[in-house]
Amino acid sequence: MILQPFDYLDEILENQHRHEQETAVAYYASEVLEALGYEPGQGEDALRRAMRACAALHVPVELNFRKTYCSYAGQMEPDWQLSPLASYFLIVNCDPSHPQVARAQLLFLKKHRSF
Predict the structure, then answer these.
(1) Which residues in the chain land under pLDDT 50?
(2) How far apart (Å, rounded) are the C-alpha atoms in residues 43 and 28?
(3) Which residues lie closer than 8 Å to 108 by C-beta, 6 or more apart?
(4) Beta-bridge partner residues of 72
(5) What is the CA radius of gyration of the chain?
(6) By the 8 A CB rule, do 79 and 68 touch?
(7) 19, 80, 89, 90: least buried by Cβ within 10 Å?
């Protein structure tokens, strides 16, 4: 049969589609950080740690953290589009002394682990 050598293509395309859905942009770093009580321009250290966590796990950083630019107060400012995984890494790498950060970290823990 002629199509037999190409049977694996459906599996490759399905895996690619699933991977694209898992790394789909869901949030902006500036919005996540603002919701966690950070002022504009703060949180770069947490963002870098989140990227390093992704890289340490051999998860493609460029698919989970996409640099973009947004207009704030009439100025173009760099920002990052984040996948759900990248957003999680950002939240767990933020300073837990911010009450909103501590609440978000606890929420993630409660959601994925019962006490």
Answers:
(1) 1
(2) 13
(3) 88, 91, 92
(4) 75
(5) 18
(6) yes
(7) 19
**pLDDT (tens digit per residue) in 17-37:** 666 665 567 899 999 999 999
Residue 2 has a CB neighbour count (10 Å cut-off) of 5
Token couple for 51: 């990227």
Q: Which two tokens stand for residue 115?
A: 């006490």
Distances, alpha carbon 59 to alpha carbons 33, 48, 93, 109, in Å: 22, 15, 17, 22
Cα separation, 10 vs 19, in Å, equals 14
CA pair distance 51, 61, nearest whole angstrom: 6
Spatial separation of the C-alpha atoms in residues 66 and 53, rounded to whole Å = 16
d(CA 108, CA 115) in angstroms, rounded, equals: 12
Identity at 35, one-letter amino acid code:
A
